[in-house]
Write a structure and sequence with these properties.
mainly alpha, 0% strand, elongated
Length: 148
């Protein structure tokens, strides 16, 4: 019993010490945010303006700029001894995607509805099956021969 009671405070002590070490060793997020916005985002904006808004969804045109943006955030994180990827980088790239790639689909083509000759069977068949099953249940319930 004595051994178990001494291990709990020891674990608590390690937890408290680890928390303070993490806080001391953490990167300076405000500086990191400022640097990725000033160095990385400004170049990416310049490159995207040069490409033109009508070609933002063309991956072949934006791949180089996007790769440079990713590498830039990684290099700054390494210099500041920050983890990468982190919450700041995730929020940064979500904002980039919301601004530049909001109207792009995964394949580069705009999504559209399938043709009617493909769509109609998927709509009509469940309706017909529902009517048929309902009619079978009603017909079977009116026959009392096999029910005990």
């Amino acid at each position: 019993m004595a051994l178990e009671s001494t291990t709990i405070p020891r674990h608590l002590l390690w937890f408290i010490l680890a928390y303070h070490l993490i806080v001391i060793a953490a990167c300076n997020e405000p500086i990191y945010v400022h640097l990725i916005e000033e160095l990385c985002l400004s170049k990416f904006k310049f490159d995207m303006e040069g490409i033109g808004q009508n070609l933002w969804c063309d991956w072949k045109k934006t791949e180089g700029s996007y790769g440079e943006l990713t590498n830039c955030t990684l290099l700054i994180a390494k210099k500041l001894e920050c983890f990468w990827p982190n919450q700041v980088v995730n929020e940064f790239f979500v904002a980039i995607h919301k601004h530049y790639f909001i109207n792009c689909s995964l394949t580069g083509r705009l999504p559209r509805d399938p043709p009617y000759n493909i769509l109609y069977p998927f709509i009509v068949m469940p309706i017909l099956v529902t009517f048929f099953m309902t009619a079978m249940v009603v017909w079977r319930s009116k026959r009392n021969e096999g029910i005990i």
